[in-house]
């Protein structure tokens, strides 16, 4: 058995929607237990990259490995040649279960309480016994500071509280890697901090995280790696220090606009 300290490795990833070439050869390496922050202007392909990693979209070129295993495909030998064959649904589900994802829109089930939202996938997808799922859900809700609101419905919660429930819901499936796609962009400014605090504590607990965010302060403080994308390519990457010392003009421009 091989163990790897590389959680996600994207190699020359391309993605086109029809004639629209959105990702044009993206390379990304994320080490286990680290936080990567992806920055970049709207339309640069950040969400598409996360959606590819989580197999919500399929690649048009290149490859992505999660925990050392190629996603979506397996290599098979046919007539002495190695070709890629699409994985079956069961293998794709197994691979996707390694990842938790949090979106800009919280997408909680409106007719379910916070607790029921968090229990839903463990019970109905992972077939966990209800008692165990309830206990774990309470634990996850406590972890995001929502232990006092177990029986509230989404509409009775603020945006920041709903997003924290959404994070607990993703954590309840015990992912190895968490993907965050602008988790605070839909929030009123005064609610951003409580969500970033939860993300910071997850990072401190050693979770592997890939975060698309415009929160530069969070990036500077929490990220191990910064990746700046523009026009479907990675323009600059490095440690958090590149935020204060950008080299590429496009990255400088971007920072001037968001800082
Ligand atoms: P970002 O998250 O950096 O703002 P996206 O990855 O959402 O960028 O989008 C990159 C480009 O791909 C945009 O031009 C967007 O309109 C386009 N795009 C994203 N998803 C689709 C889709 N499902 N079909 C067609 N075009 C898409
Ligand atoms: Mg996006």
Automatic annotation (TrEMBL):
| Keyword Transport recorded | yes
Instruction: State the annotated membrane topology for this chain.
Output: Peripheral membrane protein
Gene3D superfamilies referenced in this protein's UniProt entry, alphabetically: P-loop containing nucleotide triphosphate hydrolases
Major subcellular site: membrane
Top-level lineage group: Bacteria
Which UniProt keywords are listed?
A: ATP-binding, Cell membrane, Membrane, Nucleotide-binding, Transport
Do you know which Pfam families this protein is assigned to?
ABC_tran (PF00005)
Query: PROSITE patterns, per this entry?
Result: ABC_TRANSPORTER_1, ABC_TRANSPORTER_2
Domain ABC transporter, residue spans: 8-256
- PANTHER family reported for this sequence: AMINO ACID IMPORT ATP-BINDING PROTEIN, L-CYSTINE IMPORT ATP-BINDING PROTEIN TCYN
What is the recorded name of this protein?
ATP-binding cassette domain-containing protein
Q: Which organism is it from?
A: Bifidobacterium saimiriisciurei
């Amino acid at each position: 058995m091989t163990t790897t300290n590389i959680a996600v490795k994207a190699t020359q990833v391309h993605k086109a929607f029809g004639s629209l070439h959105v990702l044009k050869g993206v390379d990304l390496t994320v080490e286990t237990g680290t936080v990567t922050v992806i920055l970049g202007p709207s339309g640069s392909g950040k969400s598409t990259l996360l959606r590819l990693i989580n197999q919500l979209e399929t690649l048009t070129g290149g490859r992505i490995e999660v925990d050392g295993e190629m996603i979506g495909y397996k290599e098979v030998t046919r007539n002495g040649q190695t070709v890629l064959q699409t994985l079956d649904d069961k293998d794709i589900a197994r691979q996707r279960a390694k990842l938790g994802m949090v979106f800009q829109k919280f997408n909680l089930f409106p007719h379910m309480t916070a607790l029921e939202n968090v229990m839903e996938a463990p019970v109905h997808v992972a077939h966990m016994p209800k008692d165990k799922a309830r206990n774990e859900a309470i634990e996850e809700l406590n972890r995001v500071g929502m232990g006092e609101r177990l029986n509230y419905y989404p509409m009775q919660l603020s945006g920041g509280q709903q997003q924290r429930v959404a994070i607990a819901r993703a954590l309840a499936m015990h992912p190895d890697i968490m993907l965050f796609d602008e988790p605070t962009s839909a929030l009123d400014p005064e609610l951003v901090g409580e969500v970033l605090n939860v993300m910071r504590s997850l990072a401190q607990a050693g979770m592997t995280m890939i975060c698309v965010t415009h929160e530069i302060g969070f990036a500077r403080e929490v990220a191990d790696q910064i990746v700046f994308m523009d026009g479907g390519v990675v323009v600059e990457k490095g440690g958090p220090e590149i935020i204060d010392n950008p080299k590429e003009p496009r990255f400088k421009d971007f920072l001037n606009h968001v800082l």
